[in-house]
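Quick one, T. Sequence first:
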Amino acid sequence: MSAADFLNLFIAAVLLAGVYAAMSVGMTIIYGVMKIVNLAHAGFLMLGAYFVFEAYDRFKIDPLLGVLLAFPVFFFIGMGVHWLLVRRIATSDQPTLTSLLLLFGVWLVLQNLGYLIWGNSDRAILTPRTLSSIEIGPISFPTIRLAVFVVAVASLVGLEFVLHKTWFGRSVRALMQNKEAGQIVGVNVNRTAQIAFGVGIAFAGAAGGLLAMLYSFNPDFGATFQLRAFVIIVLGGLESFGGVAVGSLILALAETFVILILPASYQPAIAFSLLVVALIVLPEGIAGLWAKRRRWA
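Structure tokens:
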């Protein structure tokens, strides 16, 4: 492999990692605040893909603008799902069988709703950006991947600003670190949890739209990406936003460079393998390693 080919693969992995991070951060927020594993994540990824597709197909709204519109739409959907269903069972500090079954059921309902409305045929979002690229010497930047990466990173930067510069963000970080201490200093746990769930679903819907610009999709679209999100948040340490970024890069690099020795169809196996390794070797994730290093220092 030439140096240019290696650099092109590395750039492709970095661009993919940005989308993976945006896809996974919603699960991290929900787990961090509520200690719930959102098994409905895949369903909202799928709905986000169809939301952007319909906006483009019916109303000629640019898919990138459709992704931005998905944020508020799915935020309010997420808050509604929390108010209607999740708040009734989210009373424990640890994931419960009830919450897992409930959200798994929501995923199945959304998936079957997708089959009912759109059928089982694959769809794709094709724009003039889809096949174009920006050439800088021997380096090629696919235009659509670069645009998707920029939107994904901008959304993550916006989230970082909210988490560190707003009362809601401080409340989220307080509950992630110590729920009881947060309650003592006046954090409204139920309200913060509802907003956090809405934000998590908003990121899922928007990420689904971003992924739909890169891959074809159908109502079962979210399942493989939910597995990837699990891998990323486990690698990151479940509640670490910085860990999500590092975990996304590790998975994207592994999936991108594995094509040098294995067919592309083996990519899901890479995700499974990383999940097993992370659970055995790094049960606390990358964030746990950082914490241990600080203690030793």
